Amino acid sequence: MDADRFLGMLDRRELKSEKQRAHSRKVCQSVFDRVSLTSLYHLTKKGFFRELKSVVSEGKEAKVFHGVGNHGDVAVKIYMVETSDFRSMSSYVKGDPRFGGWANRRQLVNLWAQKEYKNLMRVCEKISCPKPLGFHKNVLVMEFIGEEGLPAPKMKDVELENPKEYCEKLISYMREMYKVRLVHSDLSEYNVLDYRGEPYIIDFSTGILLDHPKASEFLERDIGNIVGFFSKKGVEVDYSRVYKEVTDGV
Ligand SMILES: Nc1ncnc2c1ncn2[C@@H]1O[C@H](COP(=O)(O)OP(=O)(O)O)[C@@H](O)[C@H]1O
Ligand SMILES: [Mg+2]
């Protein structure tokens, strides 16, 4: 198994221009170390996807690809060992009873992928978010939120038709998460995709359980981000009311 198989897929595909193809190829070469390749291979063997088509996002900690599976499009998120911020990552894993320790950076990055998978599993029946399909080492495969290989736009980039309703939906999702003892911990207009007029929450690797020592601090920050975003849009939304609605009686 070598990078050429995946690179070949990207080359042949309907990427619009030569420039785009060259770009995807470059990203792949930087992402596909031996471990990632083996994980991709393993996941294709298991039938989670057949091919990768294009690069969707190139964050510092993860690259996201659009892939095609037997049952539709998938998002393939590859966590990067070289460029991740370990100090910050470890603070979200320490204190989480679901995970043991780690001996090196690679193991911590693998835990990170597993954490996003587990968090998505925990909430995917209750809120709108990508359905997790599988993971192996530092690679996570999940449902693709978007059309024809293009990811749905981030909430920060769209003109919402009914911001008040949208805001209330996100508050109800925060409550649903809280009810299963999960705090997203990186919730903001950057991690909500607007898909067919509905909010979909993504990027759950930072999600922690309420046992975590910083759970209340992170919950307050999540609520603050959402309240801040919608207040700027002219929605009347009060932090204390939202806090109460998310946490009351749980
Ligand atoms: N399931 C998905 N479906 C479609 N696009 C996705 C999906 N997950 C992530 N993306 C795209 O990749 C970008 C980065 O993903 P995210 O999980 O937020 O990682 P990070 O912010 O850590 O780089 C998102 O803003 C979105 O454009
Ligand atoms: Mg993100």
What hetero molecules are in the model? adenosine-5'-diphosphate, magnesium ion
Hey, roughly how much beta strand do the residues contain? 15-25%
Shape: globular
**Order of strands across the main sheet:** 1-2-3-5-4
Topology (elements, then pairings):
Layout lengths: L2 H10 L5 H14 L2 H12 L5 E8 L3 E8 L2 E8 L6 H8 L11 H19 L8 E5 L2 E5 L2 E2 L2 E2 L11 H17 L2 E2 L8 E4 L2 E4 L6 E2 L5 H18 L6 H9 L3
Antiparallel strand pairs: 1-2, 2-3, 3-5, 4-5, 6-7, 8-11, 9-10
Bound molecules: adenosine-5'-diphosphate and magnesium ion.
Summarize the structure.
The protein is α+β, with helices and mostly antiparallel strands and 250 residues long.
Account of the protein in words:
The radius of gyration is 18 Å and the shape is globular. α1 runs antiparallel to α2 and α4 crosses α5. The longest helix is centred in the middle third of the chain and has 19 residues. It folds into two domains: 148 residues, Phosphorylase Kinase, domain 1, CATH 3.30.200.20; 96 residues, Transferase(Phosphotransferase) domain 1 (Transferase(Phosphotransferase), domain 1, Orthogonal Bundle), CATH 1.10.510. The strands form four sheets. The protein has a five-stranded antiparallel sheet, sandwiched between helices. A two-stranded antiparallel ribbon has the order 6-7. It is of the alpha+beta class. The chain has eight helices and eleven strands. It starts with a helix and ends with a helix. The model has no long low-confidence stretch (mean pLDDT 91). β9 and β10 form a beta hairpin. Bound molecules: adenosine-5'-diphosphate and magnesium ion.
